[in-house]
Amino acid sequence: MAAVQTLPPRTAQEPPQVEKPALTVTGAVDTSGKCFENGSSGRKTGSIMTIVGSAIANFSDGYQQNLASSTNIIFNHIIGTHVYTSAIQTRISNSLLVGSVIGIVLFGYLADKFSRKGGMLATSGLVVVGTLMSTLAFQVYSSQGVNAMLWFMTIARGTAGIGVGGEYPTSAAAALEGSQEHFDSRRGPIQVLISTLQATSGSAVCTFVYLMALVGSGNDLKVAFHAIYSIAIFLPLFVVVIRWRMQDGMLFTRSNFKERAIPWTLLLRQYFWRIIGTSAAFFLYDFVNFPNSIMSSVIINSLVPGKNVRHVALWQLYLALMPIPGVVIGAWLVNKIGRRWTGIVGLMGGYVIIGFIIGGCYDKLTQDALPAFVVLYGLLQAFGHLGPGATIGLISCEAFPTAARGMGYGIAAGFGKAGAAIGTQVFTPIRAAAGPASTFYVAGGVGILTSAIYYFLPEGNKTDLERADEEFERLLERRSND
């Protein structure tokens, strides 16, 4: 059995706490050779840089995901719907999702086995490469034709998707562990503000850049295309600069699988129901949320008189801004009423109540009251971001010990992206076969099912992450002695 390393003692500046048994880590090595203290200014700066880097990365990811909406409008107008069919539109949208699933699973493992920092630098690089490829789409169109361009976009978006997906487990784990060191009582709100809020804000900024490019270029769609994708290149480059100064958290330094085999059977047996619960909730939320977000541009485009691209973009911007207050309220609620009940409130208020209202009044709203439709649609999204949008990632992070946090979160988020891909694939035919109102009834039904699952998810509000790691390490020690 590998040597046992005992955690450094708490600093004298910390308030008195109930004495805990020292966490012993079998095979976990502090590669820096330094004894880190919670109160050291260097570590606090490193933790803050980790949190800031994760926030900007999530902003970049939100921007990336919203590129699909504007890209769909641009291609519909330039190429035409007879070529850019719903099947091709879905293929390009799903390429980002499929890439995300690969990135989530791959980097979830790499982040636990090797390093949070290394994984995050690699993911940022992939986002840069994939986005840079996308900016060349119309050059491929001119030289190789439309079919080559559409396949080129599929590959480019898939490459960016691997990086976007890899951000989920690496950033979520690193940010949670960084905030636990110095801001533990506020780690829940911090996690929501640097993840969901930033991703939602990135989506709104992407729409704003698209609108400003249209205004500045006189509705030149090719200029708008290059503008939105050029900005998308610089965001992850800025993240790389920030991340050079970040460091792996103390929890990860103390408990990891860098020099020991991962006990897959033990992890599955010990955390099976948590994996099932978080994965199911993630799957169902993204099954509804992602296609609804992408389809918003298609719905608005079909309703705006004359299909003026600038007017469509303006309505898209309204829709993109409305979820932001929901996220802020969700960040406040996660400590007030807990993670689970915040999720349930958002699901029942948004997808169930508002979803059924929109479904029942769809024709009336879209024919006679477009502003009212946009407000209700925005409220549906706001409640979704207040509830599961703000909490499912946080719950999935807190549900697993540090040594397996990237993998546990990665599996759950991977199922989420699979749900998003499937939802994107099935919502279009559902809408075509049963009418546009049917998708809102589906959202309401899924909201009821997800609320039931949420009730059984672990509540992490009072979870002591360090104590949870101690229990996990003792479990590993007992296993190694058997």
General description of the model:
This protein has 482 residues and is mainly alpha-helical. It has a single domain, classed as Up-down Bundle (Growth Hormone, Chain: A). The protein has 19 helices and two strands. Helix 6 (187-194) packs across helix 16 (388-398) and helix 10 packs parallel to helix 17 (405-434). The termini are close together. The model is unreliable at 1-39 (pLDDT under 50).
- CA-based gyration radius: 23 Å
User: What does the overall shape look like?
Assistant: globular
The CATH topology assignment is Growth Hormone, Chain: A
Largest sheet: 2 strands, antiparallel
By CATH reckoning, the class would read: Mainly Alpha
Strand numbers in spatial order across the main sheet: 1-2
**Looking at the chains present, what oligomeric state does this protein adopt?**
single chain
Structural domain tally? 1
Number of helices: 19
Structural class: mainly alpha
Beta strand %: under 5%
Order of helices and strands: EEHHHHHHHHHHHHHHHHHHH
Distance between the termini: 11 Å
GO cellular component, one term: plasma membrane
Keywords: Membrane, Transmembrane, Transmembrane helix
Pfam family, one: Sugar_tr
GO molecular function: carboxylic acid transmembrane transporter activity
